[in-house]
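Title: Prediction job returns without error message
Component: structure pipeline
Severity: low
Priority: P3
Assignee: unassigned

Description:
Job completed but the reporter wants confirmation the result is attached to the right record. Sequence as submitted:
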Amino acid sequence: MSDNGLLVLTTGGTIDKVYFDAKSEFTTGESEFPEIARLAQVQMPYRLQSVFRKDSLDMTDEDREAIREAVISAVEPRVLITHGTDTMVETARRLLDITGKTIVLTGAMQPSRMRLTDAPFNVGFALGALQSLPEGVYVAMNGQILDPRKARKNREAGRFETD
């Protein structure tokens, strides 16, 4: 991968959830990123790596360390992390001291596999952010680029905000 490449780390979360109607349950499935990228005709080269497939509420400190290690060891200068929205900011804060890379975390409020979802918009927005932002760690959600030191999820309103 050239130094202009992109690493996409997938961790699960709502963006990759699959709904089982018979059980009225969700489970985390394979990453939807390749399908979103195909439909959006993404032209920039990328490498896809699954760290794990979990709901972010089930993530542990060890999981966040696995994400951190994947980012640090990446040869690519740009890293997109698809992540569950409930603890996305917590993970982003864990990455703040990593230098030499532009890191953007994004996710979805509704699974990508659903007809009405914010997943394609958020992924596209995050890809654009990755190409224009200086090195650092960011959260890209709801058409906003947020500093994880000030960001929070407003569960009642279903959006991300800054303090």
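Comment from assignee: result matches the submitted record. The longest strand covers residues 46-54.
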